[in-house]
Design goal:
Blueprint lengths: L3 H35 L1 H23 L6 H17 L3 H10 L1 H17 L1 H15 L1
Length: 133
């Protein structure tokens, strides 16, 4: 039995494929409809231009970031400083000397998590450090 996440992924891929085939079929139908009026080359260019314009509009509307890079970096810096403010530097130094490989793994994981989800990174950092102490 396929779990629901895999099933949704397969359904999404199938929907994208059938959607692309449907748009191609509509494009061909539109070209063949316009062909008697303006000719095959002109109708193909016209429909291609219209579909390209629609794709550009969708890309501009859907790929626009919600926040600027400066706002995102300020948020990450604030949460990192907040997470590290709770730890005294002597504790961090002792932790690095006691478990250097674990400290490196925590630092790498925290950096990766900070770039993806800053709030979760702060929680995970506190949890990991308290577990090592």
């Amino acid at each position: 039995m396929i779990d629901s996440a895999k099933l949704r992924f397969i359904a999404g891929a199938g929907a994208a494929l059938f959607g692309l085939v449907g748009v191609c079929a509509l494009g061909v139908a539109a070209v063949l409809t316009l062909e008697p009026m303006v000719g095959l080359t002109a109708s193909a260019a016209l429909i291609g231009g219209v579909l390209t314009l629609l794709a550009v509009i969708c890309l501009i509307l859907l790929a626009r970031p919600e926040t600027t890079a400066e706002e995102e970096m300020a948020k990450i810096e604030h949460l990192t400083a907040e997470a590290l403010a709770d730890l005294p530097f002597d504790t961090v130094k002792a932790l690095i000397e006691k478990r250097p490989i674990a400290s490196l793994a925590i630092a790498a994981t925290t950096g990766y998590t900070l770039s993806r989800d800053p709030e979760a990174a702060a929680r995970n950092l506190r949890r990991a450090v308290s577990g090592l102490l």
